[in-house]
């Protein structure tokens, strides 16, 4: 319900109500800001891998956790709540809350696109490398298998066991079973490259267009196109009841997101001490180095006039550099069975530190923008 109903409704309703063509032009820097967080986070994650000598099967997880921040649920909780504080410095409460939901919803949409496009593929690449090593070792031990004579197995293996497993959402045990079946040499299972590329593109498009991304696209279209806005959003709109229903569904999204984050963190209670160096490294990257670099980028952009002078907008841009890793990384590791336990431990450690880190950075960011 949260992933398929509440979050898409929240994103769609907020963007449709507050985003116009003019505001889209004003918010042009946010996608670029998110891209900066991913590029810098990836570079810092690569340095962390070299320093800590992370095992190969966890390198995709480390890169993803350093690059992909929680740009959805935390901003949706933090940014609107700032407007409801007594004596807030962001103007009228209703106007501030409406803008805050729009900024946070756009941040969530961008975060979903970047996380699933980058995080999904980086974990897939490293998990497929491990899978290939396993298949190579199995093929040397059992050079003759049923694959050579079984046409069904030949078809199954022709596009690679991992690709099939991803497309059909196979469990970890099924992936391993496919790996055991697909032990034939590469020259015996050649498939045209066009078919492989088409298969991968189809899979990546399915991942990229997640429900929250579709909700963001629909909300942006309604908000930007005047005819749709007059039909659904304006006070005298004939179909305003549709938009109000979507907004009511979306209002249930914020509390359920908070519960979902807490439920995911409970999985990391076991084995916290085993991954302590990794947790410390990711914590330093996400809560010390990235925010410091983010301050330089955002304040420099404000100085040169690239960002409009809304303090709430500037606060969100700064906050995007200081959030903990994206919860979606847990889901991605579960899809591939690569570092699932380690990811839960990392999430628990980083989100525990975020309780202190976000408080300190938010206070400092407020002082900067006001």
Automatic annotation (TrEMBL):
Lineage: superkingdom: Eukaryota
Per the record, its GO cellular-component terms are: endoplasmic reticulum membrane
* Coiled coil regions in record: none
Q: What is one Gene Ontology biological process annotated in the Swiss-Prot or TrEMBL record?
A: auxin-activated signaling pathway
TM helices/strands, residue ranges: 26-49, 61-80, 100-120, 203-225, 245-266, 278-300, 312-333, 345-369
**Where found?**
Endoplasmic reticulum membrane
Keyword Membrane annotated: yes
UniProt keyword annotation of Transport present: yes
Keyword entries, A-Z: Auxin signaling pathway, Endoplasmic reticulum, Membrane, Transmembrane, Transmembrane helix, Transport
Q: Which InterPro entries match?
A: Mem_transp_PIN-like, PILS1/3/4/5/7
**A Pfam cross-reference name:** Mem_trans
Membrane topology of the entry? Multi-pass membrane protein
Which family does the similarity line name?
Answer: Belongs to the auxin efflux carrier (TC 2.A.69.2) family.
Which purpose does this protein serve, as stated in its record? Involved in cellular auxin homeostasis by regulating auxin metabolism. Regulates intracellular auxin accumulation at the endoplasmic reticulum and thus auxin availability for nuclear auxin signaling.
**Name this protein carries in UniProt:** Uncharacterized protein
Q: What is the organism field in this record? A: Lupinus luteus
Upper classification of the source organism reads: Eukaryota, Viridiplantae, Streptophyta, Embryophyta, Tracheophyta
